[in-house]
Amino acid sequence: MTRKRIVAILTFFITFYIPFISYCQDEQAIDIIIQKDDCLIKIAEKYLENPTKWRELARINSLHNPDLIYPGQTLRIPIKLLKGKQTDGVVSFIKGSVLYQPPNSTEWKMLFLNDHIKEGYRIKTGDQSRIEITFQDNHSLLQDSNTTLELFTSREKANFYTYQKLFLLTGKTITKIKKATGRESRFQIDSPSAICAVRGTTFRTSVDENNITRAEVLQGNVNVEAMNQVVTVEEGEGTLVRKGEKPLVPQKLLPPPALIKVEPIYKNFPIVLSFTNIENAVSYRVIFSQDKDIKNIVYERVIKPHETFEIYPVEDGTYYLETRSIDNLGIEGLSSQAIPIKIRINPVPPFLEIPADQTVYRKKSILLKWLGVNDAVKYHIQISEDREFNIIFDESKDIKDTVYKTKNLDYKTYYFRISSIADDGYQGAWSNILSFTIQPAPPVEVPEIVDKKINITWLDLGVNMKYRFQLSTDKEFKDILINQLVEKSEIKIQKPKKSGTYFVRVSPIDPMGSEGDFSEPQMFEIKKSPFYKLLGILGTLGFLFFLTF
Q1: For every residue of 5-35, which 3-state class applies, written as one string?
Q2: Pairing of strands 434-438, 359-361
Q3: Which of these, 9, 16, 250, 434, could form a disulfide with 357 (CB 3.0-4.6 Å)?
């Protein structure tokens, strides 16, 4: 065998046979049987997505002369070259305002759950809006708020090869590619500055207003291509691509910040959350969601590491919190596990009618009153001698009414709070703490008797206060001679005609008409006149004279 013949055989082997072996090992293909009158160009037109690739088909099958094929001959066609049937994506989750624009149209239309997403559709989300599109093999793409993308291609070939290609114009997406036995898939996201191609992975892609693309890989790996350079971003890594530049060297994603303290249940708004410090993080993304998969987002904020995250009124239930660190390149780190946040505000504490805060009372026992709460079956009240409620003076846990009369109180300041209890026994949050003070009724000064008038005064308790004045012949005030309302802390009364001991007392009445306890009784004495004493003496002497004579 001549040298030239050996070289020719080796060249043919290297050119055709080795690529064929390589292909058979790495790619999936189908076999077709050549029929009479078939030619490679006709076969390409019939089977290939791009018929102009018939030469690649000849190379793969080691056809030295593409025009020379025979009936009965087997021809292998790579799955990726085959014509595919269009497969739609399906809207599997949607929230807020999400629009789509069909191909060759300028009109934007509303999308709804279970709608089909076809090739050429452009999808746009608004503020606080999200959509999840699920493809065959359960591949899914979660499109975040203020994001626009276009579904270029969605095909299935030979029942086991799927291919999706999307263009992310701006915004953020999270892509999850599921591996399936016996099936192969390719998922590609193009952006203004890069191409991200994956097989079996979970990753985030974002494009900002400067056309900077960021890719963060949570599982598997992603090939990111820009300016004819491809970098492989492994699990737990991220990269950044500026338009017109090569991808940055992949770097490790930062760990998520941890929540410093998690309460078993939160009963009051706002809920204020703090987080641990993560080295090299310039900010944190905190997401508060209704579901564990962090799709149905309620609040989402980017905060500085030292800042807190506040949750404002939402319905009772279990929510979930996810955190991420963000580095100085804007690359977001690994996501935390979904942290359950249990909230139960209801039943809320009732609105209080009585007492008003810092009210002063002049009676030993007072009436507490509040408004009824719809989902409360009873109430729990506490009266304490200190604001921290360490010294409980009076307490009741089974009040079914909306009023409560306290025990007899001492002359001091007390603190009051109340909570509602639901029919399942759950006790809601305490109300705000109110204070009230018990003071003795104003003491009555010693009455001043002038001629036929008696002037009585007592301590003035302030503007708009009124008083009830009572005069009695007995200390228990069973025989009340005067019961009079006065607007000043004094009164002038007629001097009683009968001699004896009299008792007086007053009770304060505040501007709202609430009457306090009576003061301790004061007394004065009306003595008999000297004239009557003289008559008595004369009468006694006369009686004795009568008996003598």
Answers
A1: HHHHHHHHHHHHHHHHHHHHHHCCEEEEECC
A2: parallel
A3: 434
What is the CATH number for 300? 2.60.40.10
Tokens of 217: 């890989």
Choose the final residue of a domain: 438, 467, 500: 438
Query: How do residues 3-26 score in pLDDT, each as one tens digit?
Result: 555 445 444 444 444 444 334 444
Percent of the chain with pLDDT over 90: 62
pTM score, two decimals?
0.73
- Bridge partners (DSSP) listed for residue 150: 122, 167
Residue 142, pLDDT above cutoff 80: yes
The C-alpha angle 235, 241, 244, rounded to 5 degrees, equals 150
- Domain contains 260: no
Higher pLDDT: 158 or 540? It is 158
Q: Are residues 119 and 196 in the same domain?
A: yes
Residue 266 lies in a domain: no
Cβ proximity of 284 and 275 under 8 Å: yes
Q: Is the domain of 134 the same as that of 238?
A: yes
CA distance 114 to 141: 14
Q: Are residues 96 and 242 in the same domain?
A: yes
Asked if residue 246 and residue 198 are part of one domain, the reply reads yes
Same domain, 96 and 137: yes
For the stretch 155-181, what's the b/e string if a residue is b when 16 or more beta carbons lie within 10 angstroms of its beta carbon?
bbbbeebbbbbbbbebbbbbbbbeeee
Of residues 138 and 218, which shows the higher confidence score?
Answer: 218
Report d(CA 29, CA 142) in Å as an integer. Answer: 31
Range of the domain at 303: 271-343
Strand, coil or helix: 539: helix
Residue 539, domain member (yes or no): no
Using CB atoms within 10 Å of the CB of residue 50, give its burial: 0 to 12 exposed, 13 to 18 middle, 19+ buried.
exposed
